[in-house]
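User: Before I run my own analysis I want an independent prediction to cross-check against. Here's the chain; please return only the structure tokens and, at the end, one sentence I can use as a sanity check.
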Amino acid sequence: MTNVSNEHDVQNWIETPIGSYLLAQEQIVFDSIVSDIFGFNALQLGLLQADLLRNSRIPFALKVSESKGDFFCESQQLPIASNTMDLVLLPHTLDFSVNPQQTLREVERVLMPEGHVVISGFNPISTWGMRRFVSKRCPSSTALWHAHFLSSLRIKDWLNLLGLEVVNVQMTCYKLPFQSATWMQRFDGLDRLGRLCWPMFGGVYCIVAKKRVLGMRIIKPNWNRTKLKRGLAISPSQKDDVSSPASKSEQ
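Assistant: Structure tokens:
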């Protein structure tokens, strides 16, 4: 896959009405997810216009991208030690990655055992996917419609191959993808209706996965182990009688 846009293009569509709507909806989803994940180190990779870790209880948080944040890097080559992150957020990072599979491999590498990754992406099986199918043929269309639009099933397959277990999937953004704020306001009720009537056809999915390590188990004490029999232990009086030289001389 080739790079579909740069950060400047992404910034431009975020400032549009549809971009602002998308960020607001995703902020709600990420806020609810990260509040229940614990650890010491967290990483938000991309889409730094939104503080998606604001509800996290993890004390040390990094926010990085190709040109902004705590440090600059490409998602395919993370300058982070292996097995150090308890939580990694990928808000549309795979949608705009040069090589989304390599990005996911890097995330698996830096995750601690039992660490979590949260991925948001555009759902191709939605009205947003239909709009993208038409708009991507137009070179002047916004960066949103040139994203990869990877299906959630494909992402789940990649996660499974890397040993990451999917634990939760949510959908959001049920409004029709109009560029006009006026038209979007006319369909305010679609978010509530979509969650009730067609939950799997939201414009954006959010997948939570956990890194499982084969052979890793918690060792518990054997509380049922048989205790030593009393006859096998030497009492203090017996020990003194046997080992004391003074007692032998007196005899």
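Sanity check: The chain has a mean pLDDT of 82.
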